[in-house]
Amino acid sequence: MQAGREAQEGRWRAEVRAQLREANRRLRDTPVGVAGSLKGLLANLAELTYIRPQQSKELT
Prior knowledge:
By secondary structure, the protein is an all-alpha fold. It is 80% helix and 0% strand. Helix 1 (2-29) runs antiparallel to helix 2. The two termini are 23 Å apart.
C-alpha cells in the first residue's frame, strides 16, 4: 500500500511540475486561460484522498 501511495504522489509531483512549466510557457506567449488551468489543477489536488497531508501541502 505504501509503495502504491508513493508512486501516485510521484506521478502527481511530476504532473504539477509539468503543468507549472506549461503555465510559464503560456504566460509568455498567450496567457489567456492560464489561471483557470492552474485553478483546475489545484481543485483536482484538493480532492485527492490517498495523498498524505504533507505531500498535499507541498503540491499546492
